[in-house]
Amino acid sequence: xxxxxxxxxxxFVEWVLEKVQADFGKSQRMKVLVKPNIVGLVxxxxxxxxxxxxxxxxxxxxxxxxPRLSGHNYYIVGADGKAYDVEVTAHxxxxxxxxxxxxxxxxxxxxxxxxxxAIDYSPTSEMREASLRAYLEGRWPHPxxxxxxxxxxIHEGGICRHEEKNxxxxxxxxxxxxxxxxxxxxxxxxxxxxxxxxxSIE
Length: 202
Ligand SMILES: [Zn+2]
What we know:
The protein is α+β, with helices and mostly antiparallel strands. It folds into two domains: 1-99, no CATH class; 123-202, no CATH class. It has helices at 9-23, 43-51, 56-65, 112-115, 125-137, 145-151; strands at 34-35, 38-39, 72-77, 83-88, 93-97, 173-178, 183-188, 196-200. It has a three-stranded antiparallel beta sheet, covered by helices on one side. A three-stranded antiparallel beta sheet has the order 6-7-8, with helices on one face. Strand 3 and strand 4 form a beta hairpin. The two termini are 33 Å apart. The site of zinc ion has 6 residues, from loops.
C-alpha cells in the first residue's frame, strides 16, 4: 500500500498513471482504473492534481491534458472571479469561460459535440437546470448565499428530491462554494431541511 503525504499528491497521481499504463491489460489490481481500450485517471485523481495548481489556467490545463478514464463536468473558479466550466469525455473536452451572469450546469453536456457520444442517464437534468437558472437569474445582479440555499431547496423540477417508493434517486446533500471569501456551506441531507454548516479557511 502506498500512502501519499499532501506534498506527494502530484507524484502519487503520476505514479498511479505510470503503473496503469505499464500494467494495462496485465494486472487485475489495476483494472479498477481502466476500461476496455481506455487508460487514464479517474476524476477524483484529476481533481487532486488540478487542486495543486496555483492558477485557474494551470488547473484547466491539467483537466484537459491528462489522460482521462471517463466523462465529467468541472467548475474551476479562482478567488479573483476567473472561472471556467470544463466538460470532458475520456477523449474530448469543451471549455467555456464563465463571465458575467448566472451559469448553471446539471447532469447533461452543454457542448453539442460531446452530447453525441454521451449516455442520457438523468432524465430530469434539463428540467432541474432550467428551474435553477430561472430562480437565480431572478436574483441577478446581487445573488446572496441565502439565495443559493433557497434555490437548492426548490422541489419543482426535482432539485431537492425526496426519497420515493420505487425510486433509487434522492438528494443526499448540497454544497455552496464562495471562493472570494474562502467559505463553503455544506448541507447534509435534503437542502429544504436547512442543515447548513459554514466552513471558512484563512
Ligand atoms: Zn426537500
